[in-house]
Fold this protein.
Amino acid sequence: MLTRNTFVGILLLLIGGGIYATCRQDVIFLAPFRETKFLDFLKIDISYYDGDILTYFLLFCLPDILWYAALLLLSKHFYNRSSMVSKILFYFTVSLPFLFEFLQYFKILTGTFDIVDIFFYLLTFLFFIILWNRKKISALLCNS
């Protein structure tokens, strides 16, 4: 069943994947398609100059935020509080981008460790938790 969260998660994946496919073709999930005419057709050359915060955010932070938000939303679809496997999968999902960043820091994964990414992952996770628990939060605020 396609829930609103699932639909939004898929939409976020498509938008973030679109940014990767057009502007950041060096990401690992596009490796099988490198050197293809399709990626060449999609490629948009955007110069990133040091100090241009908006371009940096749009090219490097926003797609990461979008895929992490999509991952969280899609994992919520499969979350079952009574299932240990579901909980483990959810905790793994929550920790995945942080794990990737630290593996990049220790040069186990290719890529560039970025503390800004960690900040935005934390912000995305906090936003997700607030939205997930908004009824509980609303009840607490109304009863105080």
